[in-house]
UniProtKB/TrEMBL annotation:
This is Aldehyde dehydrogenase family protein. InterPro entries: Ald_DH/histidinol_DH (IPR016161), Ald_DH_C (IPR016163), Ald_DH_CS_CYS (IPR016160), Ald_DH_N (IPR016162), Aldehyde_DH_dom (IPR015590). SUPFAM superfamilies: ALDH-like. Belongs to the aldehyde dehydrogenase family. Pfam families: Aldedh. Keywords: Oxidoreductase. GO terms for molecular function: oxidoreductase activity, acting on the aldehyde or oxo group of donors, NAD or NADP as acceptor. Signal peptide: none annotated.
Length: 488
């Protein structure tokens, strides 16, 4: 699979100014391919190319934009097996995740926003009757609210899903008539170049889509500070998001930020056995999906004391059923994390939890593999809300459990966090579950489920983000509202 990739700028495949770097398979530590290291000037060239293509692309008909997105989805689907193999090799995802949660979701998002390009962008407002005055003679004023494309959008994507995450940015941005510069995560950028190649083959005009990658901080900085960029859409850590926000603020650039999460899962003691099993299974997805490298995971479990011991025991048993190992092998549930550095970071948090007084119920030791960046699924119990392992995003297969006494305490503990992306409530009393959900300071709340409705708005409160996307909300996110007023 090893290949040498070039940048994609202005419809041309360009040799990188900074040479190439190795993309490493997290499972085998072998080289997947050589990714291009863009120079700062090349990133600005990409933004300039997007600026040059914007006027024509923004004036194409919705039907033309929809056709390009649909054809791109067809091409991604045509090459599905190869795309899934590459995604797995770059990210270390299990076969099921690479196929079903990465490439398949990426294709589905292009299909969704091909339809989205055809959604109405004009909304008629009630007419207003004005009496004669300084602003003119009496009359009836009509008005339209019209959504217009923002312009050039920089899309900075995360490493945990090299297909679904960029597709969720690129497809709605293009559907609305924007042009894009994509800066993929340095750990797994090759899939994004595949996406760009599909768009090129599908007939996207030169400059509409540009992809620049690199390991240097300067590459991302250039993608944000270019004067040709009107908006930045970023998925990643809160710390990086804050730095991007400072630059955007100076240039009055639009922002869409999906940042960190430390999802609270409130588990009440009114659950029956089936409800408890549902909670255990839902929380267990933290270990399974992307090896815990997912900001929406219920990593911070708040268990009412009447159910605390049973829940901890069942979560420990659940880990025992999860095969850790080569993501290509049948039956593997938990693959590697993205890099050696990240493995060390996750392990340091487990050790910190021990020092803080948490009880390691399961996991806590590095799996015995000769190669690969593996972390054992780990359960930390008897935690308190002031522990760093409870307050900070670990981004690995680690779950912490904190006990609480009553509903009010549970809500207070859940809200005592810098984050607010997605929280969860498990209760046998549906009225209670919805009552509690409404009081949680989070952009989303799952009630007795970790499932997502892919038309519901997605985004965070507090340090978990700015703005909302998914479904039609993504089309709104990548547009500006314009008012057109006339006198009838």
């Amino acid at each position: 699979m090893t290949s040498t990739q070039r940048l994609f700028i202005g419809g041309e495949w360009v040799e990188p100014g900074g040479g190439h770097y190795e993309v490493i398979d997290p499972a085998s530590e072998t080289v997947v391919g050589l990714a291009p290291e863009a120079s700062r000037a090349q990133v600005h060239d990409a933004a300039a190319a997007a600026r040059g293509a914007f006027d024509a692309w923004s004036r194409t008909s919705p039907e033309e934009r929809a056709a390009v997105l649909d054809r791109a989805a067809d091409i991604m689907q045509r090459d599905f097996a190869a795309n899934a193999d590459l995604a797995q090799a770059e990210s270390g995802a299990t076969s099921g995740t690479a196929r079903g949660m990465q490439v398949a979701v990426g294709v589905a998002r292009f299909r969704r926003y091909a339809k989205g390009a055809l959604e109405p962008v004009e909304q008629g407002l009630p007419p207003q009757i004005n009496e004669a005055g300084p602003m003119g003679k009496a009359g009836v004023l009509g008005a339209l609210a019209v959504r217009q494309p923002v312009g050039v959008v920089t899309c900075i994507t995360s490493y945990n899903n090299p297909w679904a995450n960029p597709a969720g940015k690129v497809a709605p941005a293009l559907a609305m008539g924007n042009t894009v510069v994509v800066k993929p995560a340095p750990q797994d950028p090759l899939s994004v170049y595949r996406m760009a190649a599909a768009l090129e083959e599908a007939g996207a005009p030169a400059g509409v889509v540009n992809v620049v990658s690199g390991t240097a901080v300067e590459v991302g900085e250039a993608a944000v500070d270019s004067p040709d960029v009107d908006m930045v859409s970023f998925t990643g850590s809160t710390a990086v998001g804050q730095r991007i926000g400072e630059v955007c603020g100076r240039g009055m650039k639009r922002q869409l930020m999906e940042l960190g999460g430390k999802g609270a899962a409130l588990v009440f003691d009114d659950l029956d056995e089936a409800g408890l099993a549902s909670a255990v299974s839902g929380i267990g997805t933290t270990y399974a999906f992307y090896s815990g490298q997912i900001c929406t995971a219920p990593t911070r479990v708040l268990a009412q004391r009447g159910i605390y011991d049973r829940l901890v025991s069942k979560l420990s048993d659940y880990i025992g059923y999860m095969k850790v190992g080569d993501p290509r092998e049948r039956g593997t549930v938990v693959g590697p994390v993205i890099s050696a550095a990240h493995r060390d970071r996750v392990e340091s948090y487990v050790e910190l939890g021990r020092k803080e007084g948490a009880r390691v119920v399961a996991g806590g030791e590095r799996p015995a593999f000769e190669k690969g960046f593996y972390v054992a699924p780990t359960l930390l119990a008897d935690c308190t809300n002031d522990m760093r392992v409870v307050r900070e995003e670990i981004f690995g297969p680690v779950v912490v459990v904190v006990p609480f006494d009553d509903e009010e305490e549970g809500i207070a503990l859940a809200n005592d966090s810098d984050y607010g992306l997605i929280d969860y409530v498990w209760s046998g009393d549906v009225a209670r579950a919805f009552r509690v959900a409404r009081r949680l300071r989070a952009g989303g709340v799952g009630v007795n489920t970790v499932g997502r409705n892919m038309e519901a708005p997605f985004g965070g409160f507090k340090q978990s983000g700015v703005g909302r996307d998914v479904g039609s909300y993504a089309l709104h996110a990548y547009s500006e509202l314009q008012s057109i007023v006339w006198q009838a």
